[in-house]
Amino acid sequence: MRRSDPEGTIFQIQRWSVNDGDGIRSTVFFKGCPLRCQWCANPESWRHEVEILFFADRCTGCGRCAAVCSTGASRIADGQVCFEREQCSACGACTSVCPAGAKNAMGKAVSVADVLKTIKRDAVFYRESGGGVTFSGGEPFAQPSFLRQLVSACHENGIATAVETSGFFDLAAVQDILEMIDCVFVDIKHMDEAQHKMLTGVGNRTILANIAALSQWHPRVIVRVPLIRGINDSEENFRTLCAFLKAETRVSGVELLPYHDYGQAKYEAVGAGFHTFSAPDDETIARFQQLLESQGIPVLDFK
Ligand code: SF4
Ligand code: SF4
After folding, report:
1. For the structural domain made of 51-106, what CATH number should be given?
2. φ, ψ at 4 (rounded to 5°)
3. How many helices (H) and strands (E) does the chain have?
4. What is the pLDDT of residues 93-108, one digit of tens each?
5. Is the dihedral of CA 261, 263, 268, 271 positive or negative?
6. What's the 81 CA to ligand 1 centre distance in angstroms?
7. Which-ligand-closest: CA of 81?
8. Where do you find CATH 3.30.70.20 in the chain?
9. Which CATH architecture has domain 7-48+109-298?
10. Strand 108-111 versus strand 103-106 pairing type
C-alpha cells in the first residue's frame, strides 16, 4: 500500500450481486453507521471497529479459544466457555483456532488499491450486464475520504457506481462524491420525526432535506422504503411520504422493501438485542404501490 493510499474499514465485498442496482455488481460493505435501525439486517455493520462475532449455538465448548486468549475475554468459567466482549481486543487469535466457526472476525482495514484489485476482476461482467460497483454498509458516507478515493478510482477505470445510504450526512461535505456516483439509493424509514428518532436513533430532518436538495440536480436518486408492519405501514405515513416526494423532490422512483428477519442470528453474535418485526401483507404492499403510482411516482424493483 502506498503511504497516500487511504485506508478504510469494510466487512465484505460481495461479488455477483444482483439486488443492489442494475446488472451484475460487486457490493462493498463499509463498516460503521451513525444509525441503529431496530430492524437492521446487518448489525455487524454498526460499529466502525473490527469486532468478534460469537455464534454460541455453534460452540462445542472445546476451550481452544480460552487457551489462546491473552486478555481473558474468552475463558472457561464453571466448565463453560464465556465471551466477555468488553475485554476483547479483536486480536483474532481465537478465530483461527476455533474448529466450529463459532468465532468470526468481522471487518478489516483495506486500502483503495486492495478493493480496486478485487472489483476489477469482474469489470467485463459489469460492462456486459450494465452493472458496476455498489457501496453499501453500514454508511459509506461515514468514511468520506475512503469513499471519495474509491469512487474516483472506479470512475477512472470506467466502472459505474451506486451507493446505498441512510441519507444522514453533511451534503456540502460529500457533494463532490455524489457528483461522481451514477445512482444513489437512499432510505426513508419514517416520515414522522419523533418516530424516526425512536426507531433509528436519529431524526429524519437532515435525511429529508438531503433528498430534496440532492434530487434537484442528481440524475438518479431512488428512495427505498423498508416496509415494517405496525411501524411505518400506516395510510398516514404513506400519504405524507407521497406528498413530500411530489412537492419537494425530483426522485427517479421508489423501491419498497418488505421486512425480513434474515439478520436475526447476527444480533446475538454481536451482543445486541433483537426486536421482532414482520412485513405487511401483500394487499397492503399493493395498496402502497398503487398510491405511489397514482401520484406519478414510479415504483421500481431491483430484486
Ligand atoms: S479476539 Fe483475541 S482478545 Fe478477543 S476473544 Fe479472541 S483471542 Fe481473546
Ligand atoms: S474455540 Fe470455538 S468451539 Fe471451541 S470453545 Fe471456543 S468458540 Fe467454542
Report:
1. 3.30.70.20
2. -85, -5
3. 11, 13
4. 999 999 999 999 999 9
5. negative
6. 13
7. 2
8. 51-106
9. Alpha-Beta Barrel (3.20)
10. unpaired
